[in-house]
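Weekly structure sync - notes
Attendees: PM, LS, DV (DV joined late)
Agenda: review two folding runs queued last week.

Item 1: First target. Sequence and structure tokens pasted below for the record.
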Amino acid sequence: MTILPEERKNVILNLLKRDGKVKVADLAKHFRISEESIRRDLTMLEEKGSLKKVYGGAIATIFQSGEPPFEQRTTVNQAEKIKIGKKAAELISDGDVIAIDVGTTMLEFAHFIQNRKNLTILTNSIPVATVLTESLNQNQFTGEILMLGGNIDPKQQSVSGHLAEQMLNQFNIDKAFISAGGVSILNGVSNYHLNESFVSRIMVEVSKQIILLADNSKLGVDTFSKICPLEKVDMIVCDQTYPDTWKDDLKVYETEWIKA
């Protein structure tokens, strides 16, 4: 495909509008040009404020100022989220008390919680609770589900607020599976939604082990509200390997990177 540079940039912006993100490798293959040429395009578009460059590609600027509703996000990077969810489910052991954060990656994760006994699962995600309830009814695992109470956000299908935070503080949790709007070496794990991030912070505080589930579009991204520094995260489950520049920091933090 041979088109003028400005036409190419318009195509990139249309893809961002449709999918929320683009990858350098995919664009280079699509346009039959070098990855370096695509990176230059992305840099120019970022300078205009049209997108935000991230590791391996770019995300739409709408993702920086506010996150789309839950339903809209379920199809974004779905294949990557499925891989992450399946891998993360392997980290659950019989008898675990676990907390599951909100988000579409957590929904995929919930589908893979199977063949485990005596689990206690706390969550503030309405879709996650629904999936787990169905799995429990079908005897795919045994245990109990505790839905955190509080204020419901219908767009994000989450529960947050003082009641949810207070309830979490009553428990000693073995493993917290947390989500993120972004994760970076400098600013750690962050979220778009202030109230959701407060709940995530409590999950981190009351849990023995912190496991972050994040697809590649979250890498190098900083969003509105900080959840925790990266050194507090024990494991990161991602669909690709870590950026080369993160290697030394991850070693210092003793954060294990698990590629799904």
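Item 2: Second target, run right after the first with the same settings.
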Amino acid sequence: MNGPFAWFKWLALFQDWSVFAEGFLMTLTVSILGLALSLALGVLFGVLGTAHWKGFRVINRVYVEFIQNTPLVIQIFFLYHGLPHLGIILPVFSVGVLGVGVYHGAYIAEIVRAGIQAIPKGQLEAAYSQGFSYWGAMRHVILPQAQRIAYPPLTNQAVNLIKNTSVMAMVAGGDLMYHADSWASDNLYYGPAYIVTGLLYLSLCFPLATYARRLERKLEVVL
């Protein structure tokens, strides 16, 4: 039997499982570090977006609007091909982490900003009355309350971030998609390669997506 899903093609894939395992590990590592970066940027710029000083809000809008309105692929290409012209050469691993981290940081910033704005203004005024500064009030009073509102969309962003690591394949990033493409091109066994790749992405994304839905249901009950 011959065809895109012939058994001998699956046997070849199982024999070369380490190729996919290496790519899976790279995708997982980039996802974790990229998520950490995006959360740090998201919280920072989300807080700036609600600050009283207009300059902070302008900084927030410039970052968010620029990142959200340019394709991630273009941003990855700039980091990989553009920065060397400025004398900055980054390893492809760093390009992946920075690319997905900065990109999703803009979306998380909007989630954080919306979460903060959902908290009654009286909470901030009460924090001021207790002697907190703006940043102290955000850290100890506002953000702990806003995180409950922000958790479901943040989890969805984590799912999107994992899937978007696949753009690293366009700059030979060593991720899961790159290894699948390379292996399939060498053997012309595209069917098994992409099915296994899809299932590996599913194994990462589906639990997070399910968790996000549970959080949304809990939030609806609380509200």
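Discussion on item 2: The radius of gyration is 21 Å.
Action: LS to circulate a short write-up before next sync.
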